Task: inverse folding
């Protein structure tokens, strides 16, 4: 998987730019007022008095504002003991924000706290548990400022992740100018899980106390093993291009757990923490997409994303090991392989008829679909084949690899082929040749698969 500025990355970057522009007008008045307010805030959690409370954190980076006293929401009063949440007030939140920042700096081996962008934390009374956190940013001639609106009752993992997201963005934006830096989508969820595993909830103050919760910490890899259960971690493509559903998963879901493993293993590389810090502090603002910043920071370990992908496959293999209980049976392996190689589609015969359901092979996709639709689908199929290879029955491992290599070779040749000489959205001769060669390879593999299955006595 060669690194390239992808269409999806461009869409995400453009959407981010539009979002920041739309927010700018709304934020300017509020940030100006909060900036003026922060200069007179007491440090270390001391309140200013009055109905509302305004606090500046010990380092001065966080300015926290919210009601001095907020009544518990009906949902929290009725919640059972299994529902874990922290009730926020400005003084407590200022302390917790500093603790999260210090934990992040320790994890990245940062020599000191070199913050530039002020972060304004605003507490709003919660009406129910699980309310959203709103993060806004504004660029001014003095640099970036950030505003985070938090419900007064929030689960500790969501609080830590919200604080980490804005802290990571602030680190990356210090040299960014008016264009915000782009960060990997797996970084914040991965670091959240890592810090919670590394330091427990030690930076969460108990409700109505100044007590720090102390927990017996678990080995991070053991915690990852436990959360994964029988599942395999997400592929690198899935981590790099998550769906909205994956990003909305709970903190112990498959995506966040896979991101935790990725961050943990990157930090365990020689100089890994320093490289991750350089990616944020030095490289993120210099590149249009985060992949270039990542590879520059980790150039001692990876020349391109293809090497990163291979390394990640080894991490997954090392985690799952050779435990036979995690391997598919031969019949399960055949079924999984065919699910990957065949695609259910709806075919519209006429405008006034309901679509007909059909199953088509990947050869049809390559021959008939526009490449803009082929590419993400085939990348997903490659990721699925990589995951299957780790659990496939031994007789199918080589065949699974051959299918994956055929698809990777096609995408590589097709990317190089480009468009026709007149640059129109039609296949040029080299692109047609790449498609024809891939279809022939897949046909030969299908024939070999049929013979192998017949020899194994598996039903077609």
Result:
């Amino acid at each position: 998987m060669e690194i390239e500025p992808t269409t999806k990355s461009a869409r995400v970057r453009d959407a981010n730019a539009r979002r920041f522009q739309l927010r700018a007008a709304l934020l300017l008045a509020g940030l100006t007022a909060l900036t003026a307010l922060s200069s007179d805030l007491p440090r270390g959690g001391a309140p200013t008095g009055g109905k509302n409370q305004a606090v500046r954190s010990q380092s001065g980076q966080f300015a926290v504002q919210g009601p001095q006293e907020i009544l518990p929401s009906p949902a929290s009063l009725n919640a059972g003991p299994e529902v874990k949440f922290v009730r926020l007030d400005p003084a407590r939140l200022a302390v917790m924000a500093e603790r999260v920042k210090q934990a992040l700096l320790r994890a990245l081996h940062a020599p000191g706290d070199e913050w530039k962008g002020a972060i304004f934390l605003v507490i709003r009374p919660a009406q129910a548990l699980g309310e959203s956190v709103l993060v806004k940013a504004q660029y001014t001639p003095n640099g970036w400022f950030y505003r985070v609106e938090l419900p007064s009752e929030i689960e500790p993992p969501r609080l830590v992740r919200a604080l980490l997201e804005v802290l990571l963005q602030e680190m990356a934006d210090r040299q960014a100018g008016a264009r915000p830096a782009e960060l990997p989508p797996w970084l914040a969820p991965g670091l959240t899980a890592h810090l919670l595993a590394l330091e427990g909830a030690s930076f969460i103050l108990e409700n109505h106390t100044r007590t720090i919760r102390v927990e017996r910490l678990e080995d991070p890899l053991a915690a990852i093993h436990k959360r994964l259960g029988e599942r395999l971690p997400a592929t690198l493509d899935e981590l790099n291009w998550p769906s909205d559903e994956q990003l909305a998963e709970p903190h112990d879901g498959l995506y966040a757990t896979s991101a935790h493993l990725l961050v943990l293993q990157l930090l365990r590389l020689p100089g890994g923490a320093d490289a991750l810090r350089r990616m944020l502090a030095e490289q993120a603002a210099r590149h249009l997409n985060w992949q270039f910043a990542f590879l520059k920071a980790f150039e001692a370990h990876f020349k391109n994303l293809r090497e990163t992908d291979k390394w990640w496959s080894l991490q997954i293999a090392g985690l799952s090991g050779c435990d036979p209980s995690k391997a598919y049976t031969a019949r399960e392996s055949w079924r999984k392989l065919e699910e990957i190689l065949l695609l259910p589609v709806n075919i519209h015969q006429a405008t006034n008829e309901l679509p007909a359901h059909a199953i088509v092979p990947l050869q049809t996709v390559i021959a008939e679909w526009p490449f803009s639709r082929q590419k993400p689908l085939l990348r997903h199929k490659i990721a699925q084949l990589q995951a299957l290879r780790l659990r496939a029955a031994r007789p199918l491992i080589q065949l699974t690899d051959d299918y994956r290599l055929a698809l990777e070779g096609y995408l590589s040749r097709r990317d190089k082929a480009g468009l026709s000489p007149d640059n129109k959205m039609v296949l040029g001769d080299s692109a047609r040749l790449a498609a024809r060669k891939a279809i022939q390879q897949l046909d030969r593999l299908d024939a070999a698969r049929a013979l192998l299955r017949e020899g194994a006595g598996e039903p077609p």
